[in-house]
Amino acid sequence: MPVFREVLAHAAAQPHRVAVRYGDTARTYAQLARDAERARPDVKPGALVTLPDGDPVAQLTGILAADAAGAVPLTADPSWRPEHQRALLGPLPATVDDAVAHDLAWAGFTSGSTGRPRVVVRSRSSWTGSFEATGRLTGITADDAVLVPGSLSWSLTAFATAHALAAGATVLLTGDWSVPGLRAALPAADVAHLVPHRLAAVLDARPRRLRTAVVGGAALGTALRDRAANAGVGVVAYYGATELSFVAVDPDGEGLRPFAGVEVSLRPAAAGPGEVWVRSPWLAHGYLGAGGGPLRRDAGGWATVGDLAEDIGPSGRLVLRGRADGAVLTGGATVVPADVEAVLAEVPGVDGVVVVGLPHAELGQVVAAVVQGAGVRRAVLERVVRERLAPAQRPRRWLAIDELPRTSTGKPARALVGAGVAAGDLPIRPLT
C-alpha cells in the first residue's frame, strides 16, 4: 500500500497536525498531502524518479509524489559532491521494468561509490508490511514526535520517516547527522532513530522528553545502553541491512533475536563464525544500475549479504562478527573496501593499497588505508578522497608499509593485512 495513501488518510482525519518539521519549516498533514499531490510526476508506473537536490521537506514531498504516481523515488545525499552524484545517478536505468508486477516502489543507496553505484530497490510491502511490528517495538503513535536524523538517501532514515508518517506522528528531520542539528530538534522528540555514536551525543544533551531511542547501523555496547537507562531512555537496538531490512532486534538488552516474520540461519563460513542467511517477507528485490553487490540468494528463498555471527546457547541470540567480504561498518554506513581502494590505486605513486576497518568506541569501526608507495603524501590522498568519495568512505587513519603481503597471483592479501594491523605485527607506520 502506498505510504502516500496513509498521508492522505491522516490529512483527512487530522489536517492541522504537523506531519514534518525541519528547522523553521513545517508542514501539516493537509499541506504535505496537497504539496505531494501537486508535485505528482506525469510518469508511467515503475519510472525511476531521482531527487538529487532540495532540503529534506522538499525531498520528502518528492518521495511521496513519486509514490502516489506508482513511480520509484530515489533520493541523493545533499552532502555528495556534484561529480560524485553524477557518477552514482548516471548509469541508472530510467525505469524499473517489473515495478508493477513486484509492487516495486522504493529505492535507496547503500554504500555508494564512485563509478559503482549500489541502489537497492524494494517493494512497498517489504516496508509497509513490517510497520505493525515496528510500531509494537518502538511504541510510536500519532501522539509522538519522531526525530529522524540523516539524509533521506539512507534506508534507515527513509524507513523511519515512512513508518512515522504511516503512524500519523510528527517527523523531525535534520538532513544530516551533525550534533548541532540533533540537539536543536531533540527537545521536541519523544522517539529518536539513531546510530550508536549519535546516541552518546543525544545523552550528553540530557534530553527530558525523549522516551525511546531506536538504534541501528552498528553494534550497541552494554555501557551505552546502561547509560541510556540511567537517563530514563529505553533503547530498541536492531540489526539489519538495506538489502535484508530488519533481521534481528534487542528491545531489552538480552541480545538480538529474529524480527517478526524473519527466519535466521547460520551457515558454515570459510573460517570462524557462521554466515547469516535470512528468509523473510521484508527482503529487497535487488540492485539497479551498474555493478553488483553483496546480496546473494538461494532457491529456497534465503538471502545473505555476507554478515558473520555466532549464536549464544539454546536461546538463539546472535552476536555479530563483521562481514565476510571485509566490509567496514562505520557509524551506520557500510563501506566496501574495494570501492575506496579503486580510487586510491589511481593516485600516481601508489603501488598498492588495502583498506580495512579498525575498532572505534563510538563509530564501531573506522576506515583505515594501508598504502605502499615511495613518496606518496597523505595530503594528496586526502584531497583525492574528498573529491571522489562519500564522507563515510574516506579513511580516518592512514598507514604506510614498504611492501604489502600479497597472494600467489600478486594481489594484495587483504585478510593478512587486516589481521596484521589488528594484531600489531605488521611493519606499518603513520603515513605523513
TrEMBL record:
UniProt-recorded Gene Ontology molecular function terms: acid-thiol ligase activity
A Pfam family hit: AMP-binding
InterPro entries, sorted: AMP-bd_C, AMP-bd_C_sf, AMP-dep_synth/lig_dom, ANL_N_sf, ATP-dep_AMP-bd_enzyme
Domain AMP-binding enzyme C-terminal: 340-411
Domain AMP-dependent synthetase/ligase: start-end pairs: 97-288
UniProt xrefs under PANTHER family: LONG-CHAIN-FATTY-ACID--COA LIGASE, NONRIBOSOMAL PEPTIDE SYNTHASE PES1 (EUROFUNG)-RELATED
Name of protein: Long-chain fatty acid--CoA ligase
